[in-house]
Design goal:
Blueprint lengths: L4 H4 L9 H11 L5 E3 L10 H12 L12 H15 L8 E4 L1 H13 L5 E6 L5 H7 L3 E6 L10 H8 L2 E7 L11 H14 L2 E5 L24 E6 H5 L7 E4 L2 H12 L7 H12 L3 H21 L15 E5 L7 H12 L1 E5 L10 E5 L4 H20 L2
Length: 391
């Protein structure tokens, strides 16, 4: 079969998930592995949400649902957005999508023509470059550094922006845990206005902020008409398998995105939408329950790091991850992650999975129960100390 160049070039350097796949193969083979790899909350979807989903399905909401999203859910998402950001938002500025990943794809499809330059921040969530390529765009990384807290600078943004069409940002950030400051968000807005960019703001971790305050670029002056915001029930309500998210965008863009959905996913199952609506109607209570363990484990990790010198880290200000610099061990992130998995049964993601700017790092997901996390993180610190002392 002859495959298209578009699909065969999605991930020319690999998808960055090799170690994750290897760890899962070990688990299937019966080997004990502590998986600190992907952002899968260890708390599953709350039973009350599942009950709402089951009631909806049993009640007959199993046929085709409204492609843009059922009206009540679009209204609830709009209300949530307005309450959290202070920006007036209507249901006509909302489309429901098959998860945050589908929202990222749809937003870039709406904003890019084939060959257009599309900026994204590095380190980046692993699907970003492939998503851009899938829409015909050309991904261009804007590198950030630990010295700036992994926040893009105005100078770096401006230097990359000439001739670009879009800028993809993510705060709170995966993989770094950075929560963008007001100054950073203002630099993003200024660059977008100066170079006529569409900002695609991935805000799926907006309920997981440990330090600082989440600020959406859409909330800054003059940004409503040039911003698309990505949201998801996956991280907020531990509904990863339900595959439901959304895009907030100007009404003209939403109208075109509805047409795209009509010709791709044909919407999200009605019973899943009803469950999402139920969850949103509970306010912050359920979301807080999902977020609380990540805050605890962050504090556990920060405490352990303070007792050693082999690993350095910027304590994450948000999200469910921590980046650790392992270069004092004499290894890069990939070699350290391989050693940790092969000798100790602990799986973490090599930093290079998220771009070359993170090659000397590993990403640790705070996604296993506290006792297992504490044991695994202590082992990780001991391994690093032993390697550093042996150099």
């Amino acid at each position: 079969m002859r495959l298209s160049q578009r699909i065969t070039t999605l991930s020319p350097d690999g998808d960055g998930w090799d170690l994750f796949y290897r760890a899962r193969a070990m688990v299937r083979a019966g080997q004990p592995v502590t998986e600190l790899t992907i952002g899968e909350p260890d708390t599953r979807t709350d039973p009350v949400i599942l009950d709402a989903m089951a009631r909806s399905a049993a009640g007959g909401h199993t046929g085709y649902a409204d492609v843009p999203g059922i009206p009540a859910l679009r209204a609830a998402i709009a209300a949530r957005t307005e309450a959290r950001t202070g920006v007036p938002t209507t249901p006509d500025q909302v489309i429901v999508t098959s998860g945050g990943q589908a929202a990222l794809f749809a937003a870039h499809m709406a904003a890019l023509d084939p060959g257009d330059r599309a900026l994204h921040i590095e380190p980046y969530y692993t699907t970003y470059p492939g998503t851009i390529r899938a829409t015909g765009g050309v991904p261009v990384a804007v590198k950030t550094r630990p010295e700036t807290g992994f926040q893009p600078t105005a100078a770096d943004l401006d230097a990359a922006a000439a001739g670009a069409r879009t800028l993809l940002v993510n705060t709170p950030n995966n993989p770094t845990g950075a929560v963008y400051s007001r100054a950073t968000c203002e630099a993003i807005a200024a660059t977008a206005k100066r170079h006529d960019l569409t900002v695609i703001s991935d805000e799926v971790y907006d309920t997981q902020v440990w330090q600082g305050e989440h600020l959406s670029p859409r909330a800054l002056p003059g940004m409503v008409e040039r911003t698309m915001v990505i949201g998801s029930m996956s991280k907020i309500y531990a509904m990863t398998g339900s595959r439901i998210g959304w895009i907030i965008a100007p009404e003209t863009a939403i109208a075109r995105l509805i047409s795209l959905s009509l010709n791709t996913t044909y919407g999200v199952p009605g019973f899943v939408q009803d469950a999402a609506l139920f969850a949103l109607e509970q306010g912050d209570r359920l979301a807080a329950q999902v977020a609380a363990p990540f805050r605890r484990r962050r504090e556990l990790a920060v405490g352990m790091l303070s007792q050693q010198q082999a690993l350095t880290a910027m304590p994450p200000s948000g999200a469910m991850y921590m980046m650790l610099d392992v270069r004092a061990t004499g290894l890069d992130g990939a070699a350290f992650a391989d050693l940790l998995l092969d000798r100790h049964g602990i799986a973490v993601m090599p930093g290079a999975s998220f771009g070359r700017a993170a090659a000397g790092q590993i990403r640790v997901a705070l996604t296993v129960p506290d006792d297992r996390f504490a044991t695994a993180f202590a082992t990780l610190c001991d391994v690093a100390a032993g390697l550093a002392e042996g150099r």
